[in-house]
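Quick one, T. Sequence first:
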Amino acid sequence: MGSDFWAGYLSGALGILIGNPLDVVKVRLQAGRSADAPSQASTRLEQARSLLRGVAAPILGYGALNALLFVTYNQSLMAMDSSIQDPTNPEGTSLYKIWIAGAVGGLVSWTISSPTEFIKCRAQLESRPEVSSWAVAKNIYRTRGWRGLYYGGATTSARDSIGYGFYFWSYELCKRLMTSSDETSNQTALKVLTCGGIAGVVTWASVFPLDMVKTRLQAQTMHDHSLQSAEREALLQPQRKILNTIQIVQTTYRNEGLKVFYRGLGICSIRAFIVNAVQWASYEWLMKQFK
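Structure tokens:
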């Protein structure tokens, strides 16, 4: 289990470092905001910094999330199929078992992904460049308490469970389709990169509408984001009605149509392919080194 944890943690942190700039663009598109820098007066340095906005929370959180995800997936898969010796190569195992193990892993990892996603979302949509992920987390705790960190948690858990089920399922399916009897080491490495990238794209395509709803659900709390005087802002700014998940779906569809649920999918797919290709390759390489 130790090798599972550290391979998952390090590969997850690496994936965030590579993919965060495109993730910022994706979140802003989903929230209905400009994908550009916060203001026209921003310098090029501030624009570059904005693409790294919110990276601290996911590096710490997503590394742990990825570790928990892979440990839970591996243990769940071996619990369902006692014949498996190496969960990174579950040949002969039914694909539906792989999907279930991935869904269980996604559901368990929600304990970390929910607060991490909320903090990241708020930090990436923040218009002030000096506001850090840590400052956003402290503000959420001050205004909403510990439970506030799990705002939108039901939607996040559904997204993670479904998405990670397809994540592991599509990765293993792709590997089986690409396997050949006379495979060289270079071909194996290319297969892992390709299948990892495809798995990332399939995952996001399967849950992108849920992710968009989650982003809008969490983004609507931005009116209480003032880190200097929340009470003063509450007096100056009229309170807006906070919509639940169903209301957001209904309102968004009525005002913007069906296409908005897939806004940003192109950017997300590019990011998903790159990040997950690197993440799977680094995970499998680390597992071999640790063993």
